[in-house]
Design a protein that fits this description.
Blueprint (H helix, E strand, L loop, with lengths): L1 E2 L7 H12 L5 E2 L13 H9 L2 E4 L3 H4 L2 E3 L3 E4 L3 E2 L4 E2 L14 E4 L2 H6 L22 E4 L10 H4 L1 H12 L3 E7 L5 H4 L7 E7 L8 E2 L4 H13 L3 E9 L5 H16 L7 E7 L4 H10 L12 E5 L5 E5 L1 H18 L4 E5 L1
């Protein structure tokens, strides 16, 4: 673990250091606020070293100015940037700059204190008649998996508790591929947090290194629902390879079986198809050479993003078949779930 000088000025930063020390982590206290450059010449070793490193830093003002994050939520709020998992389709590969070190923010109080100014604003739930009952939504897992680092950081628990007591018409959202929800079960969340399990068929487990098994994620989601949390499924990325109908059918059946008879279940579903950019493909192929994940361009078409970049998405015929299948299977197996969006 690396700790910048400024991070040590914040109580939350010092608390993370204490947790890490209790877990036996090596802590390096930096004399300044810049992370040291990587010294590994071998790209694979440099990647592995960076993925195994967590740095406590201070989020600058530019990082604390929230951005809209449609279609997931009104606003993106970052508790950290980077993820310890090894997913060979990771969309962060084309988004985060530099080595894939996970950076957790010590100035969490400052980040949370700015959120009331965004309440009542936004286009996804705040001004959407069909979803206004959710309040203003804040997504905490755009640039990280907050549960994957929670045992060390405590940031997710702090944010959940903050939303629970803030008295705002607002909701915290996070999605995860991990299952260590013990620290969250007894929190006074006030029904203001929605946890979603990010799931894919077991046959794709080789693309999700370092994460919890899908069955364990679903079991954790059920326990969170039993603890009164709003919950959801993020089925992503949907990968259209031969046999996908059976694989995703079994996945939906498993989710339905795990969540059956959960009292007061409030379940949403988000459906996200696999896509990639030229930049993310190059990075991922350097990180995971020899991966069986298909990024050949077959059954793909080019789509321009709102930022002016191009990404490869499934062609219109493939998208129609996928969307029809998921709508039908979910409607049959999870009829009370709300599908929030398809992309």
């Amino acid at each position: 673990m690396l700790v910048t000088r400024a991070a040590r000025d914040w109580a939350h930063g010092r608390a993370i250091m204490a947790r890490a020390a209790a877990l036996g982590a090596e802590i390096v206290e930096l004399t300044g606020d810049r992370l040291p450059p990587q010294t590994q010449d071998d790209p694979r070793r440099a990647y592995a070293e960076a993925k195994a490193t967590l740095a406590i830093v201070v989020a600058p003002p530019s990082k604390r100015k929230l951005e809209p994050i449609a279609p997931s939520a009104d606003w993106r709020v970052d508790l950290a940037a980077g993820c310890p998992a090894h997913c060979s389709y990771c969309y962060l590969a084309g988004s985060l700059k530099g080595a894939p070190i996970t950076r957790v923010y010590a100035n969490l109080d400052e980040i949370l204190d700015a959120l009331p100014g965004y309440v009542g604003r936004g286009t996804v739930t705040s001004s959407n008649a069909a979803r206004r009952h959710e309040g203003t939504t804040f997504e905490a897992s755009c640039y990280t998996d907050p549960l994957g680092i929670e045992r060390v950081t405590g940031s997710l628990s702090a944010a959940i508790s903050w939303f629970g007591r803030a008295g705002l018409d607002a909701q915290l959202r996070f999605t995860t591929k991990f299952d260590d929800i013990e620290p969250l079960l007894s929190l006074d969340h006030g029904g203001r947090t929605r946890m979603r399990a990010s799931i894919n068929p077991a046959r794709f487990a080789r693309f999700e290194g370092g994460t919890a098994p899908v069955a364990a994620r679903l079991a954790a989601l059920r326990r969170m629902a039993d603890a009164g949390y709003k919950v959801g499924l993020t089925i992503a990325p949907i990968i259209a390879v031969p046999g996908w109908e059976d694989a995703y059918g079994e996945l939906i059946d498993s989710a339905a079986a795990t969540l059956s008879d959960a009292a007061g279940l409030d379940l949403t579903i988000e459906l996200i198809t696999h896509r990639f950019t030229a930049g993310s493909k190059a990075v991922l192929e350097s990180w995971y050479p020899g991966s069986a994940l298909d990024m050949s361009g077959a059954d793909r078409t080019t789509k321009r993003t709102k930022f002016g970049t191009e990404k490869q998405v499934y062609d219109a015929d493939t998208m129609r078949r996928l969307r029809r299948f998921f709508a039908d299977r979910i409607g049959h197996k999870l009829p009370d779930a709300r599908i929030l969006y398809w992309t």
